[in-house]
TrEMBL record:
ATP binds at K195. Interacts with PARD6A, MAP3K3 and MAPK7. Forms a complex with SQSTM1 and PRKCZ or PRKCI. Belongs to the protein kinase superfamily. STE Ser/Thr protein kinase family. MAP kinase kinase subfamily. Gene3D superfamilies: Phosphatidylinositol 3-kinase Catalytic Subunit, Chain A, domain 1 (3.10.20.90), Phosphorylase Kinase, domain 1 (3.30.200.20), Transferase(Phosphotransferase) domain 1 (1.10.510.10). Pfam families: PB1, Pkinase. This is Dual specificity mitogen-activated protein kinase kinase 5. Residues 126-143 have a biased composition (Polar residues). The keyword Zinc does not apply. One of its GO terms (molecular function) is metal ion binding. Residues 123-143 are annotated as: Disordered. Keywords: ATP-binding, Kinase, Magnesium, Metal-binding, Nucleotide-binding, Phosphoprotein, Serine/threonine-protein kinase, Transferase, Tyrosine-protein kinase. It catalyses: L-seryl-[protein] + ATP = O-phospho-L-seryl-[protein] + ADP + H(+); L-threonyl-[protein] + ATP = O-phospho-L-threonyl-[protein] + ADP + H(+); L-tyrosyl-[protein] + ATP = O-phospho-L-tyrosyl-[protein] + ADP + H(+).
Length: 429
């Protein structure tokens, strides 16, 4: 074909691109774009979201020369569509024909409840896009558009935190769904932990996540990580929380029982608080238990936003070692499932020690840990969910009662010593 011989379309660079968004059963809206070749998938979805605010659009289609519909769900597929479109424009120009707009057909996602694992895709493009926002032609109802974008700005920026005020420093760790950074918040002078998750979802879903996260402002417990705000920038959500200078429990090796006991008390209190707000944690594990040098223990990464949990789950499907058996087999998730994960989280040091003491015999290390501790874990990990302790039974368990003395100094000293050891092992900076 002619366009192949000409290479990447130099003549198209400055050309205005008209995208005709076909609205099901009611005509079309023309959108004029001045930076066509740089246009991203996300930009198109944003505009479709403004044209069709009621629908949740996750993809769109265009027609090839045979009239077959081709789906676009990513920047790569966008590029392919634009290449194809520009080739048809060249042919129309060569033949002296009128240039047809690029017709696209928005595709609504499946209704909630139906999982659509393939409908979402992680976009690994780093950093903000370099081009300006797409210009929208007069064909769009401009009043409603202005109103909705102002409203969106308010909702998405949340008025508390924004990217411009944040200076990212070290990377604290990578998880399944994102990366956590230590960051400096310029206006407040605070050090934060900012979790950044790449999510290619519609504006509607972004709005839903932001409103679901609002409950975090109301969470007020010294056993739950402090929440400072969240915002979306393009396809990334940034969740700003309190920074815990001791990090998460997974990086600590052997935790003595008198320290672990106090940690368990804080974790049980944190979970009981969440359950009282009708929030299930859904991801109880050592990496979501944070400690600091003042001896505080706080839970993070709990499933407060169903939509966020679903969006991450659609992108990163999987199970982890801390999940209750009923969850792995797809049965109903409840408080009991959090209790299982609690038990298995604290069983780790037991097992670790067991391996060190005697590799061959898979028995609990008698004498190493107290009977109440072993009993606590065994109860939490009963196969039948209903047989596991209920919240008030957890609080009343002898292991928890024994260490429920508010002695933060024990945890504080242990965290400080462990950090000191780590520093001396790493040597001078
Ligand atoms: P997953 O994504 O499966 O939940 P994860 O919990 O290890 O795994 P992240 O939640 O992304 O992954 O966290 C990565 C690491 O960042 C954690 O292991 C923890 O060490 C660190 N981290 C997270 N939040 C904070 C915080 N508020 N303060 C200090 N460190 C943190
Ligand atoms: Mg985590």
């Amino acid at each position: 074909m002619l366009w192949l011989a000409l290479g990447p379309f130099p003549a198209m660079e400055n050309q205005v691109l008209v995208i005709r968004i076909k609205i099901p059963n009611s005509g079309a809206v023309d959108w004029t774009v001045h930076s066509g070749p740089q246009l991203l998938f996300r930009d198109v979805l944003d505009v479709i979201g403004q044209v069709l605010p009621e629908a949740t659009t996750t993809a769109f289609e265009y027609e090839d020369e045979d009239g077959d519909r081709i789906t676009v769900r990513s920047d790569e597929e966008m590029k392919a569509m634009l290449s194809y479109y520009y080739s048809t424009v060249m042919e129309q120009q060569v033949n002296g024909q009128l240039i047809e707009p690029l017709q696209i057909f928005p595709r609504a996602c499946k209704p909630p409840g139906e999982r659509n694992i393939h409908g979402l895709k992680v976009n690994t493009r780093a950093g903000p896009s370099q081009h300006s926002s797409p210009a929208v032609s007069d064909a769009l109802p401009s009043n409603s558009l202005k109103k909705s974008s102002a409203e969106l700005k308010k909702i998405l920026a949340n008025g508390q935190m924004n990217e411009q005020d944040i200076r990212y420093r070290d990377t604290l760790g990578h998880g399944n769904g994102g990366t956590v950074y230590k960051a400096y918040h310029v206006p407040s002078g605070k050090i934060l932990a900012v979790k950044v998750i790449l999510l290619d979802i519609t504006l509607e879903l972004q709005k839903q996540i932001m409103s679901e996260l609002e409950i975090l402002y109301k969470c007020d417990s010294s056993y739950i990580i402090g929440f400072y705000g969240a915002f979306f920038v393009e396809n990334r959500i940034s969740i700003c929380t309190e920074f815990m200078d001791g990090g998460s429990l997974d990086v600590y090796r052997k935790i003595p029982e008198h320290v672990l006991g106090r940690i368990a008390v804080a974790v049980v209190k944190g979970l009981t608080y969440l359950w009282s707000l009708k929030i299930l944690h859904r991801d109880v594990k050592p990496s979501n238990m944070l400690v600091n040098t003042t001896g505080q223990v706080k839970l993070c990464d709990f499933g407060v936003s169903t939509q966020l949990v679903n969006s991450i789950a659609k992108t990163y499907v999987g199970t982890n070692a801390y999940m209750a058996p009923e969850r792995i087999s797809g049965e109903q998730y409840g408080i009991h499932s959090d209790v299982w994960s609690l038990g298995i989280s604290f069983m780790e040091p037991l097992q670790l020690l067991q391996c060190i003491v005697d590799e061959d015999s898979p028995v609990l290390p008698v004498g190493e840990f107290s009977e109440p501790f072993v009993h606590f874990i065994t109860q939490c990990m009963r196969k039948q969910p209903k047989e596991r302790p209920a919240p008030e039974e957890l609080m009343g368990h002898p292991f928890i009662v024994q260490f429920n003395d508010g002695n933060a100094a024990v945890v504080s000293m242990w965290v400080c010593r462990a950090l000191e050891e780590r520093r001396s092992q790493q040597g001078p900076p």
